[in-house]
Amino acid sequence: MDDLRQKYLSAIAEAADEEALEAIRLAAVGKKGEVALKMRELGRMTPEERRQVGPKLNALKDEINAALAAKKAALADAALDERLRGEWLDVTLPARPRPRGSVHPISQVTEEVAAIFADMGFAVAEGPQIETDWYNFDALNIPPHHPARQEFDTFYMHRDAGDERPPHVLRTHTSPVQIRAMEQTGAPIRVIAPGRVYRSDYDQTHTPMFHQVEGLAIDRDISMANLKWVLEEFCRAFFEVESVELRFRASHFPFTEPSAEVDLRCSWQGGQLKVGEGDDWMEILGSGMVHPKVLQAAGVDPDAWQGFAFGLGIDRIAMLKYGIPDLRAFFDSDLRWLRHYGFGALRVPSLHGGLSG
Ligand code: DAH
Fold first, then answer.
1. Are 57 and 152 in the same domain?
2. Are residues 64 and 199 in the same domain?
3. Residue 323 — φ and ψ, nearest 5°?
4. Which mean pLDDT values do the consecutive 10-residue runs of the chain (357 residues) have?
């Protein structure tokens, strides 16, 4: 009996899984198992022997059953542990890998400009980059032989001989979006229109594609004073300084009357630009009161409505604000440059959360 006990208890201890355990149970305490066979031998014993051996056999059977149950529970525990280890999840890990790209300064500055003007009630309007010459020129009071057409270094789209469609150009400025926006919503209207523009020009401060943002505010009583306040407010917010000083210089644009170019007081010290102080002036935009002919071309009655418009170079103010010396680098797609001048991909510029940092 001791041999049986030894044999089965150690077999149970070594069983690797439930299947092995069941085989041991059948061999030991099953109906035809070794313990059952021993029990059958009791019949051939004297009553005296039977009284001694019977309880011992029963005890052995109980002991083996208990060992089987304990081992079964231990195997189940181990299986659960194994599964939990396999399904373990570190909930403190970031949900997504950190973004590796960065936001281009042009995109950043466009977002900043949109955030500032949104706060003053300007919606964002868009127009096509391939424009008809009517929207790009005629509707803006630049008739076919007007000298301003030459000044723009326009890219004309190819036309086959006999093509009757209106001539198309790559838009030379964002001003045509003024016309499209007024056609769509009429007056009153307050929009800005950021986007790409094209001119055949290339040096350290000119690239054939660059970016402008157009501004347009039309209502019954909008004046130059409103224009001045809006632009000052914009410059203060954009350059993130307490105060700015603007200088309005009389100028000429076919689409505004009167027209003004606007300079910003600044200083250059050791190559570092400071806005709002110093003895230098930096030209930053063109502006004026929208010409009655322009309102008319867009279907707005110039006797009932008036307002201002302006056009601002995005690349230029990006270079100024972030100290970027060469315009051409904007469009080289050099990763080292992008890592240096780029912005965090998850930061969204806003007036309350901060524009640039
Ligand atoms: N469209 C002009 C340019 O590209 C800029 C400009 C000047 C826009 C005066 C305006 C404006 O809306 O009023 O040079």
1. no
2. no
3. 60, 45
4. 90 92 92 88 88 90 93 93 91 76 94 97 98 96 85 87 90 98 98 97 88 98 97 95 93 96 88 83 94 98 98 93 87 92 84 78
Q: Is the domain of 69 the same as that of 113?
A: no
Q: Which one of 255, 295, 317 would you pick to mutate in the ligand 1 pocket, going by the greatest count of ligand atoms within 8 A of its CB? A: 255
- CA-CA distances (angstroms) from residue 164 to 8, 97, 160, 320? 101, 54, 9, 45
Amino acid at 136: N
251 and 153 share a domain?
A: yes
The phi, psi pair for 199, rounded to 5°, reads: -145, 145
Task: Give me ligand 1 centre to Cα 290, in Å.
Answer: 10
Nearest CA to ligand 1 atom 7: 286
Q: pTM for the full model? A: 0.72
* CB contact at 8 A, 38 and 50: no
Is the residue at 346 inside a domain? no
**279 occurs within a structural domain:** yes
Q: What is the dihedral of CA 82, 87, 93, 95, to 10 degrees?
A: 170
Domain of 116: which CATH number? Answer: 3.30.930.10
Question: Range of 315's domain?
Answer: 105-341
Last residue of a domain, one of 84, 118, 139: 84
- The residue nearest atom 13 of ligand 1, judged by CA position, is 287
